[in-house]
Specification:
This is Alginate lyase. One of its GO terms (molecular function) is lyase activity. The structure is a single chain. This protein is mainly α. Helix content is 53%, strand content 1%.
C-alpha cells in the first residue's frame, strides 16, 4: 500500500506566535514500492526494525579528530537519524504499522532527550530526524507529535535568533558552509512544521547567504578558504536541501534561480562545480588551505583530505539537484547510476 505525503497532516505552528493550522507540504512524496530505491529502503528498514533509540542530550563532532571528546559517542547516536527516516519512508511505502511505531519511539526518545547546541555542523544530520517527522506527523501519537514539534520549533527559531543577533561583519562561520547548514536546518524545520513565517525567514537568510557566499563566477568562498572541492559540496548540498524543502510552499519563488544584484545564484554555483563533477577538470585537495584543522585531519589519515578530489562524493548533491531541475540528472547518473535510497524513493 503506497501513500503520498503531500498534505499528509496538519500542525499548529508559528515562528513568532501560533498560527492557524497549515498543511505540511513535504518535499518527499513516497508512492511506489516497485522501484529499486523503495526495495532497498524496505530491506534496510526491516534490518533495523528491532533496533532501539540511543538518544543523547548533546552531540559534538565538529572540529574533532577520531576518538576525541564525545565524537565516537555522537557518531554512534547519530546513526538513529537515518534509521528514523528510512523507517518513516518504509511506512509510507507499505503502511506496515511496525515502522510507524518505531518512528514514534525514536522521535519521542530524541525529542525528550536532545538539547540543541546550535552548532550547525554538529546538528546538520538532524535532517534525517526532521524528514522522519515530516513523513509521519499526521499519524504520530499526540504526545510524540507535540514533543517533536517543540524540538523542531526550538531548532528553527533558535538558529534564526542567533543569525539575527550576530554581528556583521562577523567571523567566517557567519558566511561560509556553517551558514549554509543553518539555512538548511531552518528551512527543513519550517517546512516540516508547515510554518510559513519561519520559512519566509529562511528565505531571507538564504538570499543573504547566496550574496555572501557565492561569487559572481559561481565559486564559493569556502573554495578560496579551504582550496577543496570537498567544501564546495559541503557548502552547496545544504542549500539544495533547503531549496527542496521550500519548493512545495512557493514562498520566495524559485530559490534555485534566485539571483543577487551581482549575478550570483545557487544554480550558478552548481554549474561552476559541474565540470569537476563530470571529469572535465580535476583538483588537488587542500593544498593551499588556510585552516590548520584540515592539515591535522590529513596527518591522521582521514580520507579525502589530500590527493585528487573524488567526483563521486558529489553524487548525492547532484541527485538532489536533479529533483529541482532534470538538467542535472545526466551528471548525477554519471556519478552514481542510482540515487541514494532515501533520495530515490521520493518523487
Amino acid at each position: 500500500m503506497a501513500m503520498a505525503l503531500s498534505g499528509a497532516g496538519c500542525a499548529t505552528v508559528g515562528h513568532e506566535a501560533p498560527s492557524s493550522p497549515s498543511p505540511i507540504l513535504g518535499w518527499c512524496s513516497v508512492t511506489s514500492e516497485n522501484t529499486g530505491p523503495a526495495k532497498t529502503i524496505l530491506d534496510v528498514a526491516l534490518h533495523h526494525l528491532d533496533d532501539r533509540p540511543g538518544a543523547i542530550a548533546h552531540v559534538h563532532t565538529e572540529g574533532t579528530l577520531p576518538h576525541q571528546g564525545i565524537r565516537d559517542q555522537s557518531m554512534a547516536a547519530e546513526k538513529d537519524w537515518p534509521i528514523m527516516r528510512r523507517a518513516a519512508q518504509a511506512w509510507r511505502i507499505n503502511g506496515d504499522p511496525r515502522y510507524l511505531k518505531q518512528v514514534d519511539a525514536y522521535l519521542a526518545a530524541w525529542a525528550g532527550t536532545y538539547q540543541p547546541d546550535f552548532n550547525p555542523i554538529d546538528e546538520t544530520n538532524l535532517d534525517g530526524l526532521i524528514d522522519a517527522y515530516m513523513l509521519t506527523a499526521d499519524a504520530l501519537s499526540p504526545s510524540t507529535r507535540t514533543m517533536a514539534q517543540a524540538l523542531l520549533r526550538k531548532l528553527g527559531t533558535g538558529y534564526i535568533d542567533r543569525i539575527q543577533h550576530a554581528r556583521r561583519p562577523g567571523p567566517a562561520t557567519t558566511i561560509n558552509n556553517w551558514q549554509s547548514h543553518r539555512v538548511k536546518l531552518i528551512a527543513l524545520s519550517a517546512a516540516a512544521l508547515g510554518d510559513r513565517a519561519m520559512l519566509s525567514s529562511a528565505f531571507a537568510i538564504f538570499k543573504q547567504q547566496v550574496a555572501d557566499n557565492i561569487r559572481p563566477d559561481g565559486s564559493v568562498i569556502d573554495f578560496g578558504e579551504r582550496d577543496a572541492l570537498h567544501y564546495v559540496v559541503y557548502d552547496l548540498q545544504p542549500l539544495v536541501q533547503a531549496t527542496l524543502a521550500a519548493k512545495p510552499y512557493g514562498i520566495g519563488g524559485d530559490w534555485l534561480n534566485y539571483r543577487t544584484s551581482q549575478g550570483a545564484s545557487l544554480r550558478l554555483a552548481l554549474d561552476w562545480l559541474r565540470p569537476y563533477a563530470e571529469g572535465q577538470r580535476s583538483h588537488q585537495e587542500f593544498v593551499h588551505t588556510k585552516v590548520p584543522f584540515d592539515l591535522a585531519r590529513r596527518e591522521v589519515g582521514e580520507p579525502g583530505y589530500s590527493g585528487l578530489w573524488d567526483a563521486k562524493t558529489s553524487s548525492t548533491l547532484y541527485w538532489l539537484a536533479a529533483k529541482l531541475d532534470s538538467g542535472y540528472l545526466s551528471v548525477a547518473q554519471k556519478l552514481a547510476p542510482q540515487p541514494p535510497d532515501w533520495v530515490g524513493v521520493c518523487r
